[in-house]
């Protein structure tokens, strides 16, 4: 039996950031990943946006950790030469009647600590995005993009350099409690951990049950993407978003230039039962045309290509609009720390979440 201070379940951006910060404080850490490679699910199936922090209710963990994490992530990307760009974002109003919603977003963002937000007019928009249809916009200069795959590789390298042990292809199948440790059982071995971090993403609810932790449900919500044909990528210079969806399930199908030069259109939002179904019953390309033309009127169906999809691990069902991150000690099993329900802005917030979890680990021994 292996003995360790902390076992982290899940090697997405959240789990790897947790492993890095915990190990950097001198504790023995192993990071268990059910897949053969890190970041195989939500962490690399998203828009790769570094969010500013203006969408989330003031005082929520999503708001606070997004703002804190953004600064940490830009620094981490610079220090580790990860492809990224602080390209800025326009959230656009297509009619005059939508302008008050931009002002409400600006006020919320400022309350959350987002700097540089500005309501801009058509002249400003045309100077930055001449092909975009808008009467006014909220400009967020702090928003950017990052290459998610490169971020995963660097987080894994940093966690290992700090002393964390990485165990790919190692799914948890059960756990038992003893007086001094949680016995985490995998197919090949049992690991005695004084504390366990649940950063299992889409499967965090199942892992929590294995660990004797709280009962909650992860609701998989799939987002699908199209992209612009290479000949039309020059139509978009930075991030362009519509106003957030009234359903609260997403922040709208938006235009995202990638660090590789692609321009993605998406994601959509649709709840589904399976956590591993990325391709079944995919939307036809035609479903993206009207959504794209709302922002780029000159685009035709011939200018679009189908792209990938991702699945968000939501903590609320379809009939609700918001659930905060769950980053705290479990209420049933004191040896478990939950880092669950980490959907957007989880990529942006990952380092702030990792640091917060490391603080919770430290508090357990005080």
- Largest β-sheet summary: 8 strands, mixed
Uncertain ranges: none
Which architecture of the largest domain does the CATH hierarchy give at level 2? 3-Layer(bba) Sandwich
Number of helices in the DSSP assignment: 8
Radius of gyration: 21 Å
Shape: elongated
- From the N-terminal CA to the C-terminal CA, the straight-line distance is 27 Å
- What average pLDDT do the residues reach? 96
Report the portion of residues in β strands.
25-35%
Account of the protein in words:
The chain has 366 residues and is an alpha+beta fold. It has two domains: 2-45 and 149-216 and 322-364, FAD/NAD(P)-binding domain (3-Layer(bba) Sandwich), CATH 3.50.50; 86-141 and 219-314, D-Amino Acid Oxidase, subunit A, domain 2 (D-Amino Acid Oxidase, Chain A, domain 2), CATH 3.30.9.10. The chain is 27% helix and 27% strand. It has eight helices and 20 strands. The protein has helices at residues 13-24, 61-80, 99-111, 122-128, 148-161, 204-210, 289-293, 346-364; strands spanning 2-9, 29-32, 49-50, 84-85, 89-93, 118-121, 136-140, 144-146, 165-167, 172-177, 182-186, 190-198, 219-228, 239-241, 254-257, 263-266, 270-271, 304-314, 326-329, 336-340. The strands form four sheets. Strands 1, 2, 9, 10, 11, 12, 19 and 20 form an eight-stranded mixed sheet that branches. Strands 13, 15, 16, 17 and 18 form a five-stranded antiparallel sheet that branches. A four-stranded mixed sheet has the order 6-7-5-14. Helix 1 packs parallel to helix 8 and helix 2 (61-80) crosses helix 8. The protein is elongated and about 65 Å long.
